[in-house]
Structure formats: structure tokens, C-alpha cells
Amino acid sequence: MDIDAIATLISEKLPWFEYRIMIIASILLLIITLWILSAIKVKNRKKLSIFKMGKTKITIFIINIICILSAIATFLITAKYKILDIYECSIVGVSILGLFTATNTINLIYLKPNNSATDSTETIVRHKIIPKCIPIVFSVIGGLVIALLVTVTLFARPYLVSTTPWWFSTMKSTDEKIEVRLDIPVKISKTTIKISPDQQGTWECSQRILGSDYCTKFRYNYDSTFWPDTKVVVYASGLTRILNNGPVHEQAWEFHTPKTANIVSISPAIDADNIPISKPIIINFDNSVGDFLEWKLVSQPEVPYEILYPEDNAMMINFTQPLEQDRDYNFDLYRNSRTYKISDKTTKELGETVQLPSIRFRTVRTPGIDSYEPQGDMVRAESIIKVTFKEDMNLSDVERKFSITPETQGTISWESDRIFVFTPQNPLNKDTEYSINFGKGLLSKFGGETKDPINLKFRTIGKVTVIGTYPISGYYGIEPTSTNLVITFNQEVDHESAQQHFSMSPDVGGWFSWDGNSMIYNVSGKLGYSTQYNYSVSPGVKTIYGLDSDQQYNGYFTTRDYVFLLGVPYYGQAGTFNCNVAAAQMALSYRGIYVDQESIKAGIGYGSNPDYNWVESYGTNIGPLNGYINNYRGTGVFYGTDLGRVLDEVSNGNPVVFWRYNGLTRNYGWDGNFFRGQHSGVVVGYVGPKSYPYQVIIHDPWYGANIYMDTGTFVGYWSYIGWAVAVY
User: Fold this and answer.
1) Which of 209, 340, 469, 608 is the most exposed place for a label (fewest CB within 10 A)?
2) How far is residue 148 from each of residues 121, 144, 184, 391, 712, measured CA to CA in Å?
3) Residue 401 is part of which domain span?
4) How many Å apart are CA 79 and CA 71, to the nearest integer?
């Protein structure tokens, strides 16, 4: 095995140059101590007290104290100057302490008193502490170890044994310290270290050996940082043995700068709802968000903010003033990689702008009232108050800001975080308006806050009153054959009491029934036509939950007039002067005889005398038309204005064709056997008692079907001519 192989093997076990120096020094110190102990002789004494055993014992005690202090000093020095890490410093210190503890043990083993002398005779005997064979053996073994370590150190190739950052690791930041340590010193003048990418920095020796040209640790000093997501390679060349013989050695190591951070979680979550107005945005990343990244936040609507970093891989967007309630917010986060000057952290270069996922949420809703009870003006005195909010509320805050007027004693409870309940200690006052009040600034569980006070009103049940009737008081034209009287009270009443306080005039027989708070007077038979009925509810109607009535209610309604109407088909006149034949067509159709107007005119015959024919631009008189109708049905002819007879015929089911003045022609009147303004129609019914009807119902070929004409107007227009034909 050659020297390089041996050196490599030992370097793997003892990589630190300082470590080897300490081992060599410890072996030499041990050998020297053993030779000193082998040369010392002591007297045999009975007592073993260290303070009564002479100079030798004191000398050994002092040596042990020095050993302990040396171990402590070695540990502190190596830790302070970072020659070794804490673990290795501990090994060195414990090794030295153990070495001298072993020396002390040897001392105790060989420094035994001689108990063979008697008390009366004190024999002085000198003994060696350690036989010479022991230091000789240790000297030989120690010398071989020292020779091997020195030879390996002098002839071995230097290797990188420690790097910062470590091989293939990732830097925590882009300005992290970069150092390399070798297992044995190398010449500074012959060693070259390069880094890629070059940051315009310099390599310097950070651990020089006694001010010489030899160095075991190098540090890279650079002005500006690396880019993130970058591979860095360090290459050391010109590495030679201490004796400067053998081949020149080269070695490299690599590591990576921090990776660009990407979002792994956002709080509040995207599209979250009901977010407190003072809650910051917390963004967690998969890597560090150090100074090598620059962030920009664009908010809609715009809000003031600051960016904080509570952890290496977390960002907090803290709003410097509260957000608005009931508002949708959108935040676009942009990221730039950057390099910066290490001295003052100012940006040197900015990388490409990358937009990260948008952050969207809606702030907490303003607390509001969803519903409340009781409501209205008929609230029972035994009611409890229940208010349902739209949001989960801060219970203690709501209770603190609640009041009721008039002031009422009671207890507060909650059915849920939204449903507030106030139970009065005693029944509420009747016929009294109450106000449920909540002061402004009510807080929801999520931090929402009302801006204005809340006032909710209701009124307790009062006196019994009538709130509605059917038929409505004052209505006219009520159907007498199917109408019952309904009186509705504003609250539940004693049925017997309400029935006793009811009266109706004219008196109509009937019986009572009830539908809720409505009293129904069911009329026996039917009411009379054209009759006004008065009804009343006198004071004193007893209540169930409120107060008895103290006012009288009066109302009335009028039934409709009697209407008699024949189902005569209606036909409009086909020509300007076809009113006579159109009236005949309607009357015959009612009897099942269907003829058209042209056929009627042809049947009458055309001519120039209306007493015998149908005349163009005039029509015909009663004679020719009556004669034509008689071809199909029997007739009754009227001359004069006997309305009673006409209505008798109609009520017997016989339509009546009549001739009258049309009411429009200016120069009306008789011109020979022609009446200027002559017009015909059919009487099909009447309104009111037959003996004194209010209206006559006619089918007018010109104006339409079922024309209601006042009786006086009808008789007035009819009297100018006074002709009529009843069709049997």
C-alpha cells in the first residue's frame, strides 16, 4: 500500500488537520508525564492524605489540575474560533481529560503505602511511581503513531472535507456565506478557487497557519447575490502536498441557490365569505420568501397594506386600516426574482414578473335582522320576543346593547347564535306600543358591525273592533239570492257575546256560523231585490285575549234590482236602413225561424210606399213587417205607448219589435206616411218590478245587444211613432 493510499485512509478517519496536531501533542504530553512519574520516588507512609504525602503528591495533583484546565481551554478555543464543530470539540476535550484521568489512576495504583513496618519502628523505603518499562512501551507506540500521522500529513493529497453550503445542498438565501475547508494546509500562492456563476467576488484565506503561506479554510467574499434557481459550481485547483511534491490535485463541489417560492396555501381561502375586516392574508409557500424575491400586491378596490414575513416560507399581508363590510375584494400578487447588493440590500437586477393566483374573498356581512316576532298591532300580552339575525352574533355584545320600551323586566336566552329570545317576567301591557331596541355597533361573531341603531316595533292587542264586512258597507247591487252577511273582528272574541250584540234591519231570519274571527250570518231563504239592509254591532263584545269593544259599528248594503231578460239572439243591421228587418230576424230566430235580412225584404217586396213595401233609404212601417212575420208566427200589434202590455208580453216570453224615433235625426217627424228618423229594435227585458221598471232592455240593430235604457227615455222615443209587434 503506497503513501497516498495510507494517507487517504487516515484522512477519512482523521480529516481535520488540527485534530491530528492535538493527537500528536497529547501523545507527547502523555509520554513526558509517564517518564516523569517513572523517575519520581516517594517514601512509604501510613496515611494516604494528599496533603500529608509530601511534594510528590502535590506535584501529581497540580499536574492533574493542569490537565483538566487544558482540556477545558482546548474545548473553548476550538469552539470560539470554529476550528471544529461542537461535537468534535467535545471529543477532543473528553479525550484529553480522559488521558490525564488515566495518568491519575496509574498514580493511585502504584502509590500504595507499605504497611509491613511496625508502629514502633519507622522504616524509610523509597518506591518508584511507575516502572520504566511502562513509559518505554508508550514511547515506542506513541512514536510510531506520531511518525505515521506526520508522514501522512506531509505526504497526503489535500481534500475538501467541509463546505458551506454542503455538497448538492440548497442555500437558505442567495447571500449565504460560502466557505471551503481542507483536511491539510495548502499553499495560498499555488491554490486557485473559481466559482460559477462569478459574482465579482474574491476568495481569501480565513484560517492561515501561524501567518505562513499555508491555509486550511477559504471564504468567498462577494458584493451582490446570486439569482435564485441557479446551480453554483466551485472548483479548486493547484492543491499540492505540504512538502510540495507529487501531482497537483484538483477538486470541485456544487450546490443550488434557493428555489423560487410558489403558493401552497392561502388564508382566507379563495372565494371565501364572511371574512373579518381586520383579518390579514396569510400565504404559505413551498420555499423561503427571502430577500431574493420582490412582491407587489394590486388590490381592487385599492386598500393600504404592508407585507410582513412571520416565517421563512410565509407572507402576511397586513391591512393598515380595516376593510369595508359587505365588500368583494380581489388581490393580484406579482413576484419578481432579484439580485441585490449585500451591503445595503438594494436591488441590482429584477427578473421577469410572474402573476400568482388571485386572492378573492368577501368581507364580513353587516349584521341585520332577518325576522322578528311578535309583529303587528294585535300581539298577545303573553307573547315572548324573538329576534332572528342574519349572521351568527357576538352574544354578550347583543345582550349588552338590548333594551325594550316601555321598560320591561325579563330574561334573555338564545336558541342559537342567531336567534335572540327575551321572555318578559310578567304579561305585557295591553293596547300598548313596544319598541325592541339594539344600540348601534352590534357585533357579529365574525366582526361585522351595524352602523345604526335598530328599532323594531309592535303593539299589544287592544279593544275589539270590526275590521271588515261582506258585503262591504255602502255597496250597491248585491245579489239577494246567495248573499250571507260576514263580520270580521280584529281579534278572537266570545262567539255568544258577538252574536248577542248583532242586529240587522229589515229583520231577516237566519243562523250564525264562524270562520276564525269572522262571524257569518247565514240568511234563511233570500233577500229582497232593490232593498237596503242595515246592520250593526253594539258595544260590549267580549274579548278572549284583549279588551272588550266600547264602540258601535254600523253598516249597510243594497241588493240589486230585479232583471228579466230573454235570450233573444242578436243580429246587427246589414245595411243603413235594415233596422226593421234586422229586428224581425232577431225575433224570428228566438222562435227557431232563421231567415236573413235580404229574404225578409224580398218577402215584403220592394216599392215606394212603406205602408205596403220595403222602401230603399227608409225601410218599412208596421203593416208590411207584421204581415211578413205572420207568415211564420202569430203576432200581437200595439198602437200607442202601452209599456205595461209590452212588459207583460216580454215576461211571458214573447219578444216585441218596436218602432221609435232614433234620437239623432234633426228634421224628424211625419212626412205623409214617412217618419223622418224612424228606427226599430226588439224589447228583450226590463230592470226592476214589472209594474214600475227602472230600465228597458233592448237589442238595437245599430247600437248593440242588451242596451239598458231608462224607462222614461224609451217611452219618450217610442211615443213619436207608437208601434210595436209581439211575436208569439
Assistant:
1) 608
2) 54, 6, 15, 83, 153
3) 369-459
4) 12
Strand partners for 677: none
Q: Which 3 state secondary structure label does DSSP give 131?
A: coil
User: Residue 615 — φ and ψ, nearest 5°?
Assistant: -110, 130
What is the domain-level CATH number for residue 450? 2.60.40.3710
Scanning 507-642, the segments in alpha helix (DSSP H) are 579-590, 597-604, 622-630
**Residues 555 and 696 occupy one common structural domain:** no
What pLDDT, in 10s, does the model give residues 493-529? 999 999 999 999 999 999 999 999 999 999 998 899 9
Tell the burial category of 457 from Cβ atoms under 10 Å away from its Cβ (0-12, 13-18, 19+): middle
Whether residues 122 and 229 fall in one domain: no
311 and 208 in one domain?
no
Q: Are residues 554 and 569 in the same domain?
A: no
Which is higher by pLDDT, 88 or 331? Answer: 331
Q: What is the pTM of this model?
A: 0.52
pLDDT 10s digits, 18-52: 667 777 887 888 788 778 777 766 555 444 444 44
Tell me phi and psi for residue 93, to 5 degrees: -60, -45
CATH of the domain at 209: 2.60.40.1220
Nearest residue to 428 via CA among 445, 402, 407: 407
Give the C-alpha separation, 660 to 264, whole Å. 99
Amino acid at 238: G
Distance from C-alpha of 279 to C-alpha of 444, rounded to nearest angstrom:
14
The cell for 169 is 445542498
The confidence score (pLDDT) of residue 55 equals: 58
Question: Is 586 in the same domain as 708?
Answer: yes
Answer yes or no: are the C-beta atoms of 410 and 459 closer than 8 Å: no
pLDDT at 707 over 50: yes
Domain ends where: 498, 530, 560? 560
Are 654 and 580 within one domain?
A: yes
Contact between 381 and 460 (Cβ < 8 Å) = yes
Q: Are residues 150 and 12 in the same domain?
A: yes
Question: Contact, 428 vs 463, CB < 8 A?
Answer: no
| Cell 341585520 belongs to residue | 368
Flag whether pLDDT at 120 surpasses 50: no
Number of structural domains found in the chain: 6
By DSSP bridging, strand 272-275 and strand 359-363 are parallel
Please tell me the distance from the alpha carbon of residue 624 to that of residue 609, in angstroms, as a whole number.
Answer: 10
**409-466 pLDDT, tens per residue?**
999 999 999 999 999 999 999 999 999 999 999 999 988 999 999 999 999 999 999 9
Same structural domain, 321 and 376 = no
- Give percent above pLDDT 90 in the chain: 69
pLDDT above 70: percentage of residues in the chain: 85
Domain final residue, candidates 560, 592, 611: 560
The mean per-residue pLDDT over the stretch 300-319 comes to: 92
Angle value at C-alpha 34, between 32 and 40, nearest 5 degrees: 105
> pLDDT: is 403 or 55 the higher one?
403
Cα separation, 564 vs 607, whole angstroms: 39
- Helix 54-80 vs helix 17-39: angle between axes, to the nearest 10 degrees? 180
